[in-house]
Amino acid sequence: QTETRIGLQKINFGPAHLLRSLRWFDQLDQRDPLQLTDGVYALRFKYSALNNANLGLWGLYGNNEPKGYERLPSVEDKPEFGGRLQYPLLGGELAATVHTRTVDASALQSDTEFPETRFALDGRWEVIVGMWFEGMLQYQETPILPYKWTKMVTLGMDYTFGIGNGIYVVAEHFATALSDELFGWDEDEQLSAISLSYPIGLFDNLSAIGYYSWNREEYSQYLSWQRTYDNLVIHVSVF
Question: What is the pLDDT of residues 102-115, one digit of tens each?
Answer without folding.
Answer: 998 887 767 788 89
